[in-house]
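Quick one, tokens below. Sequence please?
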């Protein structure tokens, strides 16, 4: 083992982390991490071969204290990855009584520190209540009439857990599952049990199809841990639609051999059982022992089976990425997104998975997608919930390459932001394992606004798969790209990021003062105009966390564009303005192309339409702008448009600006060679969107 590996694997004292790993844990950028080290906010514990390292234990303690501190840096960050506390994902359940029950439990626990042992005790109590309500405990009838009953059967003043521990509640074959759930919590501290008692005495019901135990476990886990492991439970509505679609395709016959490689508390397996009525063939894996135990309990509650050994063989506690299972008819589920991997894990994944080989950043949903396809039999199906980003960024090109080589997509549904509190649009993707058979012909697509089937082969670039575009829009986009000769900004422009202060309270002020100068944010950037500044900055370049070369800000002529926006929004700046990171800088350098001509094209309806259709992103990225087609125009043509743009920028009348914009926009439509039908379609898609954002 080389010395570099020893840096990460030293277990004799404390686990050591490099700065990149610390930044991942704290959910900050590397630039922020370097700035925190430079200003003394984050101090290395030592160096090894000149590389600073940090002790994991101290970082965890520091993280916890900062996230609890009312004014802590992490608590105030927009990225809440490390915020402690709970978040009840209400959309996980569909039954209101399930949600109300879990809410009541969480309210009874308010203000208490809930450790792992306490979590296990709480889950055991409500598992017992579920068994009792389902009529499965020894001495209960267990008839159909009994199991349909939703009454809780709750002893007054004493929890079922206490009754079990005292030996007054027999569990029969199900005791093994409760013992598994309590592993690590026994023997139970009576004082802790007393503190938890109010939360243990809340009545609980059993409702077919709803995962009360999973929702409760999700609520009891700190949000920081869930996000670090990439855990986002599937909303019940998405789950049911996905299972229903699989059934419509005939992919859930009785006895179907299926596997959920990251099954959690078993919601997909539970839904599959409801459709098939058959436990045989259902398989699940999860690396979290508590989750897999809850999955077993859920399937017992649904089926009434007493064959616990068989169930344990089907639902296994294991890391699926190290498994060698195969031959499944169907692999389904919601794999982790953005999971953190330790250096040792990364080394294994790079060796075992093509989608991880050579990658600096390994995306967990990518390796799980590869795993799922490998586990399918020839002609088998992978059905996963994945982030839309899979289709959109260069980072995920290796995953798309693998999908192209090994499978054929036949169903794709875009969900948008359906995961509560998570700004990450999701999609359901169904792939048939068919090496060499990739085709877009016949692909069924569902978006939030329409359903359609792609009729022919689409030319998909390596960096982007815009499959949420129907045939009509695909033809119009091709027309915009090819009807007339076009320029692009790729390799013909300079880009500069706005300033990241690292500490707005220290560097920014709402009022002007000596030593401060105005600074503009994205909220003050509109099409063709820049509003008055709302902040002032102490422009100390050495102290700022991220800053572009001063010459980029001080250009006599540049474009400023909003970074957070659904479409490009740009303004002309000849005042050498400073900008924050919500407003970035663009300096076109296309020979024979005037900067104000580029401004007019960026703010046009054609580009707004093109951008909305191809880039489903709230961030205007450099590669997005570099991809936009700009019609090649003579100097005379450009000058005519620039004269109109100058009039628009000089006008103080909103009504006049709109009239000037409309006249300018008609000219730009003509430059692209678009006809009345094309213009009508563009207007239909843009709707009532204001052209002068």
């Amino acid at each position: 083992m080389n010395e570099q590996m020893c840096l990460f694997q030293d277990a004799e004292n404390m686990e050591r982390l490099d700065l990149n790993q610390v930044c991942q844990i704290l959910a900050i950028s590397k630039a922020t991490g370097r700035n925190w080290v430079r200003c003394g906010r984050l101090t290395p514990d030592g160096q090894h071969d000149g590389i600073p390292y940090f002790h994991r234990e101290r970082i965890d303690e520091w993280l916890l204290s900062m996230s609890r501190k009312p004014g802590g840096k992490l608590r105030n960050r927009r990225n809440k990855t490390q915020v402690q506390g709970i978040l009840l994902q209400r959309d996980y359940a569909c039954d209101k009584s399930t949600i109300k029950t879990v809410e009541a439990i969480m309210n009874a626990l308010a203000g208490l520190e809930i450790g792992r042992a306490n979590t296990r005790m709480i889950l055991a109590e409500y598992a017992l209540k579920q068994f009792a309500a389902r009529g499965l405990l020894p001495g209960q009838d267990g008839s159909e009439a009994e199991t349909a009953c939703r009454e809780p059967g709750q002893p007054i003043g004493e929890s079922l857990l206490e009754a079990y521990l005292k030996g007054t509640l027999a569990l029969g074959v199900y005791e093994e599952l409760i013992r598994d759930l309590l592993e690590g919590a026994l023997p139970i501290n009576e004082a802790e049990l007393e503190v938890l008692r109010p939360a243990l005495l809340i009545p609980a019901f059993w409702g077919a199809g709803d995962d009360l135990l999973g929702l409760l476990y999700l609520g009891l886990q700190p949000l920081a841990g869930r996000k670090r492991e990439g855990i986002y439970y599937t909303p019940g509505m998405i789950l049911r639609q996905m299972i229903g679609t699989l059934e419509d395709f005939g992919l859930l016959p009785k006895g179907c051999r299926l596997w959920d490689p990251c099954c959690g508390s078993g919601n997909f397996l539970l839904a599959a059982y409801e459709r098939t009525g058959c436990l045989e063939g259902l398989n699940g894996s999860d690396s979290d022992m508590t989750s897999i135990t809850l999955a077993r309990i859920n399937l017992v509650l649904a089926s009434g089976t007493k064959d616990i050994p068989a169930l344990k063989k089907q639902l296994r506690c294991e890391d699926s990425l190290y498994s060698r299972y195969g031959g499944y008819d169907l692999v389904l589920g919601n794999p982790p997104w953005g999971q953190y991997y330790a250096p040792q894990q990364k080394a294994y994944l790079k060796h075992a998975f093509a989608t991880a080989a050579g990658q600096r950043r390994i995306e967990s949903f990518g390796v799980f997608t590869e795993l799922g396809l490998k586990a399918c039999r020839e002609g088998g199906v992978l059905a996963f919930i994945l982030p839309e980003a899979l289709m959109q960024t260069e980072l995920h090109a290796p995953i798309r390459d693998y999908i192209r080589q090994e499978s054929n997509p036949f169903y794709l549904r875009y969900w948008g932001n359906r995961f509560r509190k998570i700004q990450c649009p999701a999609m359901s993707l169904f792939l048939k394992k068919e090496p060499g058979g990739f085709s877009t012909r016949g692909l069924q697509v569902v978006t939030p606004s329409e359903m359609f089937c792609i009729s022919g082969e689409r030319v998909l670039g390596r960096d982007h798969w815009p499959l949420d575009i129907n045939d009509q829009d695909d033809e119009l986009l091709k027309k915009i790209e090819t009807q007339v000769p076009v320029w692009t900004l790729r390799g013909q422009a300079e880009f500069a990021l706005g300033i990241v202060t690292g500490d707005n309270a220290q560097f920014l002020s709402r009022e002007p003062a000596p030593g401060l100068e105005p600074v503009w944010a994205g909220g003050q950037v509109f099409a063709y105009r820049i509003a008055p500044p709302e902040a002032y900055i102490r422009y100390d370049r050495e102290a700022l966390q991220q800053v572009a070369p001063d010459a980029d800000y001080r250009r006599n002529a540049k474009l400023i564009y909003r970074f957070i926006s659904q479409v490009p929004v740009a303004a002309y700046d000849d005042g050498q303005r400073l900008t924050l990171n919500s407003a970035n800088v663009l300096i076109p350098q296309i020979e024979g192309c005037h900067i104000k001509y580029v401004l007019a094209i960026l703010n046009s309806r054609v580009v707004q339409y093109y951008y909305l259709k191809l880039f489903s992103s709230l961030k205007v990225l450099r590669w997005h702008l570099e991809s936009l087609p700009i019609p090649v125009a003579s100097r005379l043509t450009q000058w005519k448009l620039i004269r109109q743009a100058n009039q628009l920028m000089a006008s103080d009348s909103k009504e006049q600006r709109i009239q000037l914009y409309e006249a300018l926009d008609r000219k730009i439509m003509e430059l692209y060679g678009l006809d009345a039908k094309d213009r009508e379609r563009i207007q239909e898609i843009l709707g009532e969107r204001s052209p002068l954002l």
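The longest helix spans residues 116-134. Confidence is low (pLDDT under 50) at residues 1-13, 67-85, 142-156.
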